């Protein structure tokens, strides 16, 4: 079995991985890290949740010279949500080395981000529009940026950002190293890669090794007019803890939201025509477990990494098998099994057959209480944004929310809390989630069954000279 040490990472980075509970690389990391460490350009075709952030993030941290304060690497993301997730991960990977990571995205004060860039920013993670804005204002200089990552490039295409991406790439040195990641490879993305990458190594992690073995897959043949009523029936029968219903268009998304709402269901919609503030509010409500049903378009659901999603319903057959795999990858996460139900109209049999051929799985006809021939239960995670971790905690049950009477005023960062818990309690990084740092206090969640043990182990620990105490504030499902 390959270890992170086998991939040529330095002891400083290996220590950072131990601090956050990482133990072994995922397939995309195992295949991507060596060529990136050798300075090669790469194209990585992998779904969200495959571990690609660490796949490019670890070599990127290795590459940074902490003595040089200028921007040495930039990661472009299509959405603010993904920007924040990537930033948190890179800060954790680079903490022991002292790497400074700055996030820049729309919807936040640009002056604050300009001040952060003046103070440092060896790695800049940003959304396309805000990065271009900062370049135009001469607040972000990329003359010394030798490492560029395009994360989820196909979503940048869907959102109409490719022209701006090219403008940004034109501001970076011609001798840069470039990594492009995309769940799918439509022709415009291939053209972008041909133009801006130099003899890239193509790394493709087959989707079925990442997702479908942890998801029961069902088909439901239904006429177009009957689909809304059938959706209500399916949700009532399945009683999901949390479900994402995928619709192909924004209009359909809004229609289904109203249909389900009018049936008394607690549901929200998520699509690209909503304001960033509205999207953030929906995301937070869904991630916090306050909303059990989310109706979403494919673009809006990118970056959703929520372990409690039990069901995915494809109200519309996905436009491609890759999109199907990406959708059902929203469930069956962190070692759990999930259920995916696809509505198929009579004229869509060929699309269904293409999906089944791609996944290698024959869908089972859905009926209330239906099971597949062999309901899969994962022995260990197959899809993860983090490598496999210590499984000594119960991650299947509900989670307890804890409060710490320390925060930004004491210089505490999310990685500090994760490190304190994993070190003192002897658990992996997956045992800590929903870390939020405020001025004078912080929140985090741990598995409810292990909360008492974690509270006892961690209380009294010191973070940056501050003695911390964990206290429960209630449980969350």
Read across the widest sheet, the strand sequence of neighbours is 3-4-2-5-6-1-7
Largest sheet: 7 strands, parallel
**CATH-wise, what's the superfamily of the largest domain?**
P-loop containing nucleotide triphosphate hydrolases
CATH class of the largest domain: Alpha Beta
| Architecture (CATH level 2) name of the largest domain | 3-Layer(aba) Sandwich
Given as residue ranges, the uncertain stretches (5+ residues, pLDDT < 50) are 207-211, 374-382, 384-396
Kindly, what is the distance between the CA atoms of the first and last residues, rounded to a whole number of angstroms? 35 Å
**How many strands appear in the DSSP assignment?**
20
Average pLDDT value? 82
Percent of residues in helical segments?
25-40%
The whole-angstrom Rg is 22 Å
What are its keywords?
single chain, 477 residues, Rossmann fold, Alpha-Beta Plaits, 3 domains, seven-stranded parallel beta sheet
């Amino acid at each position: 079995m390959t270890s992170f040490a086998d991939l040529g990472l330095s002891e400083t980075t290996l220590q950072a991985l131990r601090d956050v509970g990482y133990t072994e690389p995922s397939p995309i990391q195992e295949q991507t890290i060596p060529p990136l460490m050798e300075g090669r350009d790469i194209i990585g075709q992998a779904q969200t949740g495959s571990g690609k952030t660490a796949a490019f993030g670890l070599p990127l941290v290795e590459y940074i010279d902490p003595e040089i304060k200028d921007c040495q690497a930039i990661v472009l993301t299509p959405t603010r949500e993904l920007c924040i997730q990537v930033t948190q991960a890179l800060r954790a990977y680079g903490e022991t080395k002292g790497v400074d990571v700055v996030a820049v995205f729309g919807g936040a004060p640009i002056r604050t981000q300009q001040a952060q860039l003046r103070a440092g920013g060896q790695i800049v993670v940003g959304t396309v529009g805000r990065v271009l804005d900062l370049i135009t204002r001469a607040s972000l200089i990329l003359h010394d940026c030798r490492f560029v990552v395009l994360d989820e490039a196909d979503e940048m295409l869907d959102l109409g950002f490719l022209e701006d991406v090219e403008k940004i790439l034109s501001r970076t040195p011609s001798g840069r190293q470039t990594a492009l990641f995309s769940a799918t490879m439509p022709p415009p993305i291939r053209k972008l890669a041909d133009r801006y990458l130099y003899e890239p190594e193509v790394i493709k992690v087959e989707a079925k090794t990442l997702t479908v073995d942890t998801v029961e897959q069902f088909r439901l043949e239904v006429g177009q007019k009957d689909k809304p009523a059938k959706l209500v029936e399916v949700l009532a029968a399945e009683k999901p803890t949390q479900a994402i219903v995928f619709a192909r268009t924004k209009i359909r998304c809004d229609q289904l939201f109203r249909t389900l709402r009018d049936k008394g269901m607690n549901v929200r919609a998520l699509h690209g025509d909503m304001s960033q503030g509205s999207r953030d509010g929906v995301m937070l409500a869904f991630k916090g477990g306050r909303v059990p049903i989310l109706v979403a378009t494919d673009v809006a659901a990118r970056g959703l990494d929520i372990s409690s999603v039990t069901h995915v319903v494809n109200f519309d057959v996905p436009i491609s098998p890759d999109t199907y795999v990406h959708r059902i990858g929203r469930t069956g996460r962190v070692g759990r099994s999930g259920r995916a139900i696809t509505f198929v109209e009579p004229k869509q049999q060929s699309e269904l057959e293409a999906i089944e051929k791609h996944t290698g799985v024959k869908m089972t006809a859905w009926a209330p209480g239906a099971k597949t021939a062999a309901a899969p239960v994962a022995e260990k995670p197959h899809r993860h944004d983090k490598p496999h971790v210590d499984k000594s905690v119960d991650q299947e049950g509900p989670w307890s929310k804890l409060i710490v009477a320390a925060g930004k005023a004491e210089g505490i960062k999310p990685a500090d809390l994760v490190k304190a818990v994993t070190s003192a309690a002897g658990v992996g990084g997956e045992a800590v989630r929903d870390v939020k740092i405020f001025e004078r206090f912080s929140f985090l969640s741990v598995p409810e069954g292990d909360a008492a043990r974690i509270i006892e182990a961690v209380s009294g620990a010191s973070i940056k000279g501050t003695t911390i105490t964990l206290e429960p504030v209630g449980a969350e499902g």
